[in-house]
Amino acid sequence: MIGRGSKLFRHGTRRPRNHPADVVDGLEHMNGLDGTIRGISAVISRVLRPGPVKDALHGVPIGHPAHPSLTDVPMGCWMSAAVLDLTPGGERAARTLVTAGLVGALPTALTGWTDWSALHRGQQRVGLVHAAATGAASALYAASLVARRQGRTAVGRMLGFAGLSLLLSGGYLGGHLAFRLAAGANHADKLAHLVSLGWHDLCKLDELPEGWPVQRRLGYISLFVLRQGEEVHVLADRCAHLGGPLHQGRIVSDENAESCVVCPWHGSTFRVDDGAVVHGPATSRQPAFHTRISEEGMVQVQPVP
Ligand code: FES
Fold it and tell me: Where a domain ends, among 151, 180, 209?
């Protein structure tokens, strides 16, 4: 039984700090980073305009964020270089791997900053520290390469090991961002297993405004619903990028004159017909529904498998 004077009662609101991830959680609340975040965000939005390059950096063409897989290149090269640095006769191969890692770090950083620019503020704070650690690791590896080329192999190795320590710390923060803060994950639930088989009544067709998206519920699932004449388009309302409310988005036409919805949070653009991603930052298709109108004027829906 817990008494009023017990330790647990007095410290009941304190968050336990049991492992490193709990400590990293504290970074999310470091508002001292916000001035830097605003400055970097302004530069990124000036340099990187919406369009195919930005979409490619987000990973739209491959249907996944591009950054996580690209991190394998510098990480793999530099970890292998560390093993070779501990192996007699491995200096030449280690130098090649340090160089390859530096080449791979460039697209890795570009994709990372692009994704970072479309995150929530708490995620951006952690992401900024992640970027600082991995950027400093890259600088140490560049210095390591210079030292190796000048024949100062021992110094080059030491700089490499220092870079590796920072790289692993930065990698840990990257994992925290992806797995604890769900940056880059698909935030739109797959609907096929949440809705029973068959057609479901949604609402009357004449209740829906023409050309204006609204929110409707199917059980506990929130849906984006758009009526265009006798056609009704239905998508999951929760944006695949970070869960923004699509029914509050703008309706636009893509280059093929197909109707799309633009998420109000970070501008991901989805075709209303089938939920395909037209522009990122989202990389996952928005779950869509087949629709039909019954003789009584009821809109009925069925998830697209
Ligand atoms: S929540 Fe980010 S684009 Fe929709």
Answer: 180
